[in-house]
Design goal:
The protein has 868 residues and is α/β, with parallel strands linked by helices. Strands 7-6-8-12-15-16 form a six-stranded mixed beta sheet, with helices on both faces. It holds the Pfam family CHAT.
Length: 868
């Protein structure tokens, strides 16, 4: 132990056990005219607090005072200890040369146990600077001495640091062993901040080993621990950004990084952390499709890292800067050279990101037509395909696919794409939350596109269909992991419903709702966070699609039209009569624009007096048909049609297209999903459930009439239409009709909802069902709206139901006139009573409506999904 009274010395470990109490005691000690020795400890405690949780300039002032008092007390060990703390602060302030000089003096002044503590802190600084080998050497020298002195706290810190360095070098197993040993030591101490740091570090280790749900759970737990201590969490922000990006949540990572930068600037915090946060923000912006923001953040990070003499970090920031410039369309020979230089430096550092840089160099070179240079860089990147975490192996397979394409080997391209997507399938299925599974597919978008192009060139329409299905609506191929019987999650859902219900009532009454909305958002974050912690249960990527099985199940009458998009143009794959034919249609961007015009027109037609808009909407429908079906429209035959659109066209009202208007028409997210719906057996008991939510303009007028028609149906209305009871009755029903206000949440699609008596029933609720209704009819606005995420995935009410046992859904993709919906629904159920499918009954129901614009628009707005 260094010099000073025992009670004063207890303040130093207290900084990371109870930071606020340590700060208060140190200030009180300075007010009591302490001895130089005690004053040195007090100033050091305040300096540590300010360094890690406050203003770095104040930290440096206090630490210099601490050193002055240590020198005045003539204590070499005390001065060495302060010099080490000062060295860390100087490095975090970007004054690397001064910081390392302080460590040199500290190592020279300290002896034995104190020198070991100084070496540990210098090892930490080497890690901050990216000098991993020097860090491991110092910590190797420190640990035996700390163990011999039975210094549990500092031994645990040293083991945690060594594990963190191992992670930076990709040695996950070594890191986990050190984390486990450190955690056993922390359990014997009261160091609450250090314990929180250990949980955070285990989260990083889980992420490096490919377990994203565990990483998110541990990082959330660490944040809760830090919150109880009242300490900032900038390192945790950086680590969570990394995990969020890997989970496909780049916009959230960017928001978190930018918010943390603002907070750090506000307290005058560590410039080293600011540089790391800027790097995280740059990566997130690039992945979010914002290359210009990425360039700005990365360029500033490069300058800060260079000024801090942090070459390892600077090199990583340069990689992101080059990636962003390439994404902004700045391919050049200089960029190839820069990427190659970065790849060489990263490889010399032993950094896991080296293959990513080589892939980038090869990709840019290919774009310039430099095939020899591209092959050299891609061959290096392709080595990573055999080992390492999933995303690193995918980098390798992407490089291998590009090599094969450059060599003209279609078979090589398809094999590499298959192997790479298999890796991502395995990774996705470790994720329990359907949102994470959907968003993770973005990481396979390039491989899917490469395979699609190769299939188009040489494989014929059947092969293109296989590859289109290979990466379409994969989330629907297996049921999501059921949310656990988690009391906190269930409590959060109940509280969320209550707050949402109160907020809705306040809006209706014209009262202000900001406080209620803030609480609702907080509860949404809490619920979402806990669902993202779920691990997947099913190995592999679900059933493989079989074209022969599809054509056999279609028969000769049904035509299935799958729309694939390659290089921005719609490819129509027409399946029927035992074969697959391909037709080329228009540009996807043009079709999206036209679909928005149609949506605007349907919104106008939902109100009386807009009849003049009908010809405009019908003309837009004709243009949509040209863009989406092209010449295939003339080959649809006379039977039922199944449309399988890409995710970005989910808002198209398909019944408006002239060639589909009089047909039995259904929509499916994928051909595989349609097949599973076709082969889903209805439940044996044939239960019918009718639900009427509050606040409808017509009062859900169709429900009483349907209750008379289905004499044995369970009718839930008024106070009985509460979420728990509704879910209980829906589970395993043969037919459910829900008349309730629908709200689509583009910002958070799994909180899209139907309004019940006690608040909203959301997608998260439906995912708790053992089996969703075999057929479900959602009779109100916006219930068919979906969010397109990932490579080609959809999130919303309809897609939540399909993997859970629902074979058919009728829902609406536009605002509709409530009064006009009632006759449509009654006619629809009349058809169902006659034994028709949902698609057949909806076709006949449209035909039975009055011929005015309002009723026609209402019919077009509804679609049948699935195959029941």
């Amino acid at each position: 132990m260094t010099a000073g009274s025992g009670s004063v010395q207890e303040l130093l470990p207290m900084v990371f056990a109870d930071p606020g109490e340590a700060l208060a005691r140190a200030r009180a000690l300075l007010d009591a005219d302490p001895s130089p020795l005690d004053a040195s400890v007090a100033h050091q405690v305040i300096g540590i607090w300010q360094r890690d949780f406050g203003d770095l300039r104040l930290a440096l002032n206090h630490l210099r005072r601490a050193r002055e008092f240590a020198a005045r007390a003539d204590s070499a060990d005390r001065e060495a200890d302060v010099l080490a703390t000062l060295g860390v602060a100087l490095v975090h302030a970007g004054r690397t040369r001064e910081g390392l000089a302080a460590f040199e003096r500290g190592v020279a002044r300290g002896g034995g146990h104190t020198r070991a503590r100084v070496l540990y802190r210098r090892a930490y600084v080497w890690w901050v600077l990216g000098h991993h080998r020097e860090s491991l050497e110092d910590v190797r020298r420190a640990i035996p001495v700390l163990r011999q002195a039975e210094d549990v706290i500092w031994t645990a810190r040293a083991l945690t640091l060594r594990a963190t360095v191992h992670l930076a070098l990709g040695a996950v197993e070594r890191a986990e062993a050190d984390f486990t040993a450190a955690e056993a030591l922390w359990d014997t101490t009261g160091q609450e901040h250090d314990k929180a740091d250990a949980v955070e570090s285990r989260g990083l280790a889980a992420f490096r080993s490919g377990d994203v749900p565990a990483a998110l759970r541990l990082l959330d737990e660490a944040e809760e621990r830090y919150a109880r201590l009242g300490t900032p969490t900038f390192m945790l922000n950086i680590r969570r950004c990394e995990v969020l990006m890997a989970a496909g949540l780049a916009p959230e990572a960017l928001a978190e990084a930018d918010a943390a930068i603002g907070k750090l600037d506000g307290i005058g915090g560590q410039s080293t952390r600011k540089a790391e946060l800027l790097l995280a923000a740059a990566r997130a912006a690039r992945l979010a499709g914002d290359p210009h923001t990425a360039i700005a953040r990365a360029a500033l990070a490069v300058r800060l890292f260079a000024g801090q003499r942090r070459t390892w970090w600077e090199t990583h920031a340069r990689l992101v800067l080059i990636e962003a410039r390439h994404a902004a369309g700045r391919g050049s020979g200089r960029l190839v050279a820069d990427a190659a230089a970065v790849a060489g430096k990263l490889a010399a550092f032993g950094a896991p990101a080296a293959p990513e840089a080589s892939l980038l160099a090869g990709r840019i070179a290919l774009g310039l037509g430099w095939t020899a240079d591209a092959e050299r860089h891609l061959a290096v990147a392709a080595r990573s395909r055999r080992s390492g975490p999933p995303l690193a192996r995918m980098t390798g397979w992407a490089a291998q696919a590009l090599r094969a394409r450059a060599a003209g080997s279609t078979r090589g391209v398809l094999e590499a794409c298959r192997r790479g997507l298999d890796v991502l399938d395995d990774h996705r299925m470790t994720l329990g939350a359907s949102e994470l599974r959907a968003r993770a597919t973005e990481q396979g978008a390039e491989l899917a596109a490469l395979a699609g192009r190769a299939s188009l060139v040489s494989g014929g329409p059947r092969r293109l269909l296989v590859w289109s299905e290979r990466w379409r609506a994969t989330v629907l191929s297996t049921p999501p992991t059921r949310p656990p019987a988690d009391p906190e999650l269930l409590s959060g859902m109940t509280a969320f419903r209550e707050i949402a219900s109160r907020a809705e009532a306040a809006r209706i009454e014209g009262r202000p709702v900001p406080a209620l909305e803030r609480e609702q958002r907080r509860l949404e974050r809490q619920i979402r966070s806990r669902t993202l912690h779920m691990r997947g249960e099913a190995p592999g990527g679900g059933d493989r699609f079989d074209v022969g099985r599809l054509l056999e199940r279609q028969g000769d009458e049904v035509r299935l039209v799958e729309l694939a998009v390659l290089d921005g143009r719609v490819q129509v794959l027409l399946c029927g009569e035992g074969r697959v034919r391909r037709f080329e249609a228009g540009l996807l961007a043009d079709a999206e624009t036209e679909a928005e015009h149609v949506q605007a027109g349907l919104r106008r037609l939902a109100h009386p007096g807009a009849e003049a808009r009908l010809p405009v909407v019908e003309a837009a429908g004709r243009r949509l048909e040209e863009l989406l079906l092209g010449p295939a429209a003339a080959h649809l035959g006379g039977g039922p049609v199944v449309i399988v659109p890409p995710g970005r066209l989910h808002r198209v009202p398909w019944a408006l297209l002239p060639s589909l208007r009089e047909r039995v028409l259904s929509v499916s997210p994928s051909a595989g999903s349609w097949l599973r719906a076709r082969e889903t057996a209805p439940p044996p008991d044939g239960r019918h459930v009718l639900v009427r939510g509050p606040g409808l303009a017509t009062g859900g007028a169709e429900v009483p009439e349907l209750a008379d028609r289905y004499a044995c149906a369970t009718v839930l209305e008024d106070d009985e239409a509460r979420v728990p009871r509704v879910l209980q009755e829906l589970d395993g029903a043969a037919l459910a009709h829900i008349a309730a206000h629908g709200t689509f949440r583009a910002d958070s699609p799994l909180f899209s909802s139907l309004r019940m008596a006690d608040g909203p029933i959301v997608v998260h609720d439906f995912e708790r069902l053992d089996r969703s209704p075999y057929r479900i009819i959602l009779s109100c606005c916006d219930t068919a709206l979906l969010a397109s995420v990932g490579a080609d995935e959809l999130l919303g009410l309809v897609t939540a139901l399909l993997p859970l046992g629902t074979a058919g859904v009728v829902a609406c993709s536009a605002p509709v006139n409530d009064a006009a919906v009632v006759p449509l629904m009654l006619a629809l159920h009349k058809g169902l009573g006659a034994g028709l499918s949902l698609a057949e009954a909806l076709r006949d129901a449209r035909a039975a409506l009055p011929g005015d614009a309002l009723h026609q628009a209402t019919g077009w707005a509804f679609s049948a999904f699935g195959a029941a």
